[in-house]
Specification:
The chain has 42 residues and is mainly alpha-helical. It is built from two helices and no strands.
Length: 42
């Protein structure tokens, strides 16, 4: 089981990767969909 700190690190790291890949300026829902997809893969 992961700690809250470990979960937070995964979320932040994944979010940064998505932002670097897709760039800025997209609707928030687009980022949410990609984040959800990536976190489910983990």
């Amino acid at each position: 089981m992961m700690t809250e700190k470990e979960i937070g690190k995964v979320v932040v790291d994944t979010s940064i990767t998505i932002d670097e890949t897709l760039g800025s300026g997209l609707y928030e829902i687009v980022y949410e969909v990609f984040l959800t997809h990536e976190l489910k893969k983990e």
